[in-house]
Design a protein that fits this description.
Elements (H helix, E strand, L loop, with lengths): L1 H11 L8 E3 H18 L18 H7 L10 E4 L13 E7 L9 E8 L3 E6 L6 E2 L2 E2 L1 E2 L3 E6 L6 E7 L2 E2 L5 E5 L8
Parallel strand pairs: 1-10, 9-12
Antiparallel strand pairs: 2-5, 2-8, 3-4, 4-5, 6-7, 9-10, 10-11
């Protein structure tokens, strides 16, 4: 995650970053590790009204995926979130939100985590289910990569993601870069 963070930070600062390649499944595993660690520790796992979420017991397939012993189920894993989500504040360089079911028999059960990095890159990982949208925002499953671009600026590079060990042949999603320290106009 450290090198991925450095590439994002350099692009955000206006530097050209080339075309680095990252293993998308490593990003998924890092997110699952963060999600399980938060849930197990009891930190930051509260409903907006202050009550605690139920304790998460990690299903065996999540643990096997975390330690690269098995793949995540079809449709589970990395989703790019192209719009800001309500509830994730930019209080630090990395912010997160545990995602849980709001209603039904599974109400309160955690099913994933959304992570926001440097106010410009937001993704979620769900180790259990296929998603089309989250909170009204359409999400994109395991994209091939991203093109860094700022408003009125030249392209600053691309990130390519590898899935199942296969490198992507293209980085297709535009990742608009906005420096969180500068007020938007």
């Amino acid at each position: 995650m450290g090198r991925f963070f450095e590439v994002l930070l350099n692009a955000l600062r206006g530097n050209h970053v080339g075309e680095p390649e990252f293993d998308g499944e490593d990003l998924e595993r890092w997110a699952i590790k963060l999600m399980l660690g938060l849930a197990a520790s009891g930190n930051n796992v509260r409903y907006p009204d202050g009550s605690k979420l139920p304790v998460l017991i990690a299903p065996d397939p999540w643990v096997r995926a975390l330690f690269s012993e098995d793949d995540l189920p079809d449709g589970a894993g990395f989703y790019y979130v192209p719009k800001p989500m309500v509830g994730i504040t930019d209080h630090s360089v990395i912010s997160w939100q545990l995602n849980h079911h709001a209603e039904g028999n599974d109400a309160g059960l955690i099913f994933g985590i959304t992570i926001k990095i440097l106010s410009c890159f937001q993704y979620l990982t769900t180790p259990a289910q296929r998603l089309v949208e989250l909170n009204g925002i359409r999400v994109l499953y395991r994209p091939g990569g991203f093109v860094f671009a700022g408003l009125g600026t030249k392209e600053r590079g691309r990130i390519r993601l590898r899935w199942g060990g296969v490198p992507s042949d293209r980085a297709s999603l535009i990742l608009p870069l906005v420096d969180p320290r500068r007020p938007s106009k």
